[in-house]
Batch of 2 targets.
Target 1
Amino acid sequence: MNSSSEIPVLVTAAPRVSLLSGARRKTIALAGLVVLAVGVTLVSLFPIYWMLVSAVRHPAVFFTPNPSLIPGPFTLEYFGRLFTATNFPRWYVNSFIVAVLATVITVFAASLMSYVLVRFPIPGLFFVLRLVLVGYMLPPMLLGIPLFAIFTSLGIDDTLLSLIISHISIGLPFGVWLLWGFFKTVPVEIEESALVDGATRLQALRHVLFPLAWPGMVTAGVFAFIVSWTDYTFALLLISSDANRTVPFGLATMMGAFEMRWGEILGGASLVAVPMLIVFAFISQYFIRGLTAGGVKG
Amino acid sequence: MILFAVTILVPAAMAVRLSLYKMSTFIDEPVFIGLGNFVTLAQQPRFWNAAWNNIVYTVACVLFQTVIGIGVALVLHNNFRGRNLVRGATVVPYIIPSVVVALTWRWMLQPQLGIVNAIFRAVGLPSIEWFSVGWAMPTVILVSVWAWMPFVALVFLAALQTVPDELYESAMIDGASAWQRFISITLPVLKPVVAIIILLRGIWMFNKFDQIWLLTGGGPLQMTENLPILAYVKTFQLNQVGEGTAVATLSLVIMLAGALVYFKMFRLEEA
């Protein structure tokens, strides 16, 4: 991704015949590039900046037709109310439990499944995998409505368990798909030589295959976590009681409950987004790999 | 032993999942009315409105995401100081949860107090009623392009970086202009990726629920109500489970038909 010998395409965009000298053109092209790059960055980051600034802005200057772009004067009172007047901490914990469990189970199941698919290619199994991937592209309600019906008949609607199960069912196909690609690249011979040396299949799996495939597993985990942590739709369908809400759903309900409580809402939104941004800074390489490998849903 | 168990578990898990899909059309079974729901829907202007909105939204989003995505990828493909920073910044909209995106934009686009209109006024532009009947659809498209264009740009960037630099160098020696190089080198490289991305983005934008729902709730006057929203409203708010499921099913049919036409038009091979 970072070959240092890349030719800057735009910068060297100099046709033979030109009114301007080559050097001058180059400067203009470079300036254009800088403007574009800065513009893209600004457009991408400004809404996040504005969310954070607004979340700590003092109520005296919060609702004004001409807000200042510079942060301040500061206050933490919205966060205070968020923690005392709403169930926000509970929602946060719920989200965390759901996301962690869904991620762990998804990665574990996806690893085993894709290993089996790679090493024991039973005819037809791959077709099933493809079908499952298609399932990933189903309209949300086509999946959500039957899931809701099933969970209701099982009596586990409005539980975190039902959310975990549905997040696994949307995260698993992509996980299997991704890991299948990773396992495929590990030569059978390496594993076989381990078997010849007297390792059991499980030992071979643990000591030979998983160490080679763990970047894939981290990538799959990152995506499973994002799918679960950011999910709003399934929480909306499955969860009815306030105590079982996850953060995205809980925040959205605040929209209706306190019509103009923008400070609290944006404070809560910051608390959902900021941890993700921090984590993202550390795992961006896995993230971009997964992204370009075919893409998580969005 | 464990492997044996897993080989059983795999098809079992698949079967469970597949049975989920069958369940969806199965919900209206209690009272079997055949295609009754579909006939009812076909007579509802609200259904056709939602289908139309769905198509407008999808086409506009995919178009802008792809075109702007290519542009941003080309910018990021250049070497400059801070490129990684810009690239990182570009991805930020994509990893922010939909709820945060929707709420933050609702705040920014507030007609009187929102920062966007404040900036517009400051530079002498008229303020806009972003969530009015006329503007609601462009607004949801705008926010969706903001949120998912980075994904497209990153995928294109990855594709661009597979092009050997020598190709560009030799083209430049042969006197090809930047535009000629873009047409004859960059575009052919991007073409298979663009084809796949348009398909994937098309499917996902077609199925979009949460973002639009949180921004407008389908309103005002159902101006932004698409098929997923209609399916939700019918199933969970209007107690028309059968019709709601029928909407979801029809949206799948429309989507598959669209994908098929797309395949025919571009003769996509396994890219």
Target 2
Amino acid sequence: MKASKPFEHVIWGLGSLLSILLVLLLGGPLVALLASVDIESVTNAAQHPLFWPAVWLSFKTSAVSLVLIIVAGTPLAWWLSRSQSRVRRYVSVIVDLPIVVPPAVVGLALLVLLGRRGLVGVHLDTFDLHLAFTSRAVILAQVVVAAPFYVRTATGVFRMVCEDTLLVAKTLGARPLDILTKVVLPSTRTGLSAGASLAWARALGEFGATLIFAGSLPSETQTMPLAILTALELDVRLAVVFALALTILSILSLLTIRRLASGQEVSI
Amino acid sequence: MTEAAVDVTFSIQVGQFTMAVALYSGAPIVSVIGANGTGKSTLLKVLAGGQRPDTGRIQVGDVTFFDAKLGLNRSPAERRVAYIPQNSGLFPHMTATENILFALKFSVPSTPESRRDRASDMLNRFGVGHLATRQAGTFSGGERQRVALARAFATAPRLFLFDEPLAGLDIVARNQVRELLIEALTEGAIPACLVTHDPRTVEALAGSVAVLENGGVVQCGSYSEILKEPASAFIAAFFGT
């Protein structure tokens, strides 16, 4: 039975209203942040001893995390996209776990595993290798929470690479490395860069796992999200500028990756 | 006794689908016909080395591609086949010239200059010289197939494998590509296995015809033999007899 015209109009109107409300909810907080900043606050924040060390640490650790995620995540994503084995399902679940598990739980789990008295950490301690509450812990926490975003996206992109095209490359005599670097990666770079952008954004914004596993030691483990919390306890205006700086850093990171991987989206 | 151009016997299990193929052809060109889902594309993939049979032997000319008893399974590169799948297999992020250069780099030992000359010659031969610097991802169906043919013929392979090269083309492009394909195949003495749903191509190629049904070859012979005594209703319907 056909829906009556007035009923259709109500549905469309309600849908439009809810969509607008959602857009306002998504964009509103950022606009509010921008609106509440003045030059004096920016100057004060830029001179605050917590600011630049946190900016630099966030940038440095998230960049290292991203490199690690891409280097280890790309072959893993390729295997996940091609493997028919049963093991693939279990590995896939393990990869997805950090997305559904709260970051605080991830941080605690890392501490239980790699802390000084942790399952593995106790052995590392005998080699005088300490991870918890160091900048290495910040990187590890970022890798664990951000890697799934890259691996999931890359797996989906690699699944779109047609088996026939790979077979053609093989029949032409191309070696596996040539197929990867000259056929697969160039044609999937836009999708991979989207995954890398997501992962970098997630690493930059990482809070809960870092706080528990690395702590919030100024200049050592205090990244921007943690510095925002500290600044909030001191002065709200300071925290607002810190938050805006983190937003700008995220946008710049996103644009950098998109620029590096700019190219036509193709499927093969 | 002269050696067969193509001598293939194998069985393979792909999921729930079982194929058992026995195909012998003295003629260098074999047209493979059959309804959808009978294993035609799988046959080409097995010949290309993309899928490994469970049993059997694959011989093309004097080269053994696969022999289960001897444990021999040549890699796709060692087989030196030119495989053109249904999607043409062009690399869409490369230009037409780059597609051919990529193939020549690995398959034909020569200088970069001579490879570039050969790529240009082949594109002109197949009437797509004007596409040399355009990305393959932007080609129309007919352009894609012509460039794919140019790349395949540039490498001077041991065996051509075409999977429905005329599929998805409009009538004009279909006629043009068919003409180019038939001319190029009949000129050279290189064996070819061509999966097609086009009776006119089968007739014009004048080679052997193999009919696949339910994963096996139900009839194999010359075009005139098959036309005279079609072994199934599908074959009769295919040729309109």
